[in-house]
Amino acid sequence: MAEAIVAKNLFKRYGDFEAVKGISFRVKKGEAFALLGPNGAGKTTTVRMLTTLTSITSGEAYVNGFNVKSERLAVRLSIGLVPDVSNLYDELTVRDNLLFMAKLYGAPAGRVEELIREFELPAERKFGKLSTGFKRRVTIASALIHEPEILFLDEPTNGLDVRSAKAVRGLIRSLNRQGMTVFITTHNMVEAETIPQRIAIMKAGNIVAEGKRNELARLVGKSTIVRLSVEPLTSSLIKALERFKPTFDEGSLVFNVADIDAFLETLMALRKKLNFRVKSLCTELPGIEDVFVELTGGCPCRGCPL
Ligand code: ATP
Q: How far is ligand 1, taken at its centre, from the CA of residue 204, in Å?
């Protein structure tokens, strides 16, 4: 099974209010996927449905191949969840919190020591006395106690200072590199830029766009800036690249490219034909924030005046 999560036409109603309005998406095994949206878009509700914490009004969802409606326990045992507000106990030490989680999930005590080592956790300190950054780190570790295949994280860096947020993002990326499927919700641009391979943008209960960062950028017609430095820079090369309308800046050729794939293919073909060496090639994609503003008509950060 190549798919970790399948959501088909998911709806969630609270009374007359439709929080999630029939969304569909798929997440591949080993992928890092983000639901990006402003407050109230329906991200947490979606995570709560996928992790069996709230019922699905209509539609279907499969997590690790298990039906979220009819195989709830199997779903729960195969996933880890890091909620936005930690579910650990302030009065217990880090080790006792992890031992308690290990008991709940039937994990061996050795797993606790493994996580303490791997995540460099202050085992003897009370959870309530830790900094917010360390609390998040311990909460992530505790969600991994039973070695789940998918990790769900709801707004993983919310409330963290810049340094702790960076550390948590690094931790998530490293888990994903080790093969863990990661599903995050976020309204934070840095997170959306740095963690996921694929992003679904949510607005008022709907997914308004989905794809890789460059696909989303293309969707709103944003181009990529390419800065190229070659040796030797000949007039035949400049002529051959004329259709991409080069400009010059400090010895580099600069292009505003709508289709980066076509540009790179042309460049590679020319390299063989004209025999030049690429000294450097930098691409600058439009930020996901540009895409977000264009697609949703607003900035996703809390309290932003846009
Ligand atoms: P945030 O970042 O603020 O958590 P979100 O995208 O995660 O935003 P949700 O928490 O899923 O959004 O909420 C979506 C909508 O559903 C909001 O308008 C919210 O007020 C509403 N909602 C969420 N939970 C309930 C509930 N239990 N009863 C009624 N309405 C709810």
A: 10
d(CA 176, CA 169): 11
Residues of the chain with pLDDT under 70: 1, 221-222, 286, 297-306
Residues with CB under 6 A from ligand 1: 14, 17, 19, 37, 39-45, 187
Query: What is the pTM assigned to this prediction?
Result: 0.80
Range of the domain at 282: 223-286
Question: To test ligand 1's pocket by mutation, which of 23, 35, 39, 292 has the most ligand atoms within 8 angstroms of CB?
Answer: 39
Residue 79 sits in the same domain as residue 172: yes
User: Left (φ > 0), alpha (ψ -120 to 50) or beta: where does 251 sit?
Assistant: left
In the block, residue with structure tokens 């303490």: 116
Q: Among residues 154, 185, 211, which one ends one of the domains?
A: 211
Phi first, then psi: what are they for 253, rounded to 5°? Answer: -95, 135
Nearest ligand 1 atom to alpha carbon 154: 7
- Please indicate, yes or no, if residue 292 is contained in any of the structural domains: no
| 191 and 238 fall within a common domain | no
Q: What is the pLDDT of residues 266-298, one digit of tens each?
A: 999 999 899 999 999 988 776 777 778 777 765
